[in-house]
Design a protein that fits this description.
The chain is mainly beta. The chain is built from no helices and eight strands. It is elongated, with a radius of gyration of 14 Å.
Length: about 90
């Protein structure tokens, strides 16, 4: 299973169990986060494309850490949130 989610003005291709770094979102370590702006969902040979988003589809994840990017000689260090994708939830899977 694959999905394309939108958060922080960027799009990410994700699958269950994958760890990603996204733009900072509020929340504490261990808190569940829900991505409801799902642009694309692929389940085996079944492909769903949103216009612009898919209705009734959510991607669930858990916050691993809040951090700052690597040191830079120019510009500020960006804040990020590290998230592990746990599962995809659709209306039919409830």
């Amino acid at each position: 299973m694959l999905a394309v989610i939108k958060t922080g003005g960027k799009q990410y291709l994700v699958s269950p169990g994958q760890k990603i770094k996204i733009e900072k979102v509020e929340g504490e370590k261990g808190k569940e986060i829900v991505f409801d702006q799902v642009l694309l969902l692929e389940e085996g040979k079944n492909l769903k494309i949103g216009k612009p988003y898919l209705k009734g589809v959510k991607v669930l994840g858990k916050i691993l850490e809040q951090g700052r990017g690597e040191k830079s000689k120019k510009g500020p260090r960006q804040f990020y949130t590290s998230v592990v994708i746990e599962k995809f939830e659709t209306e039919s899977s409830k």
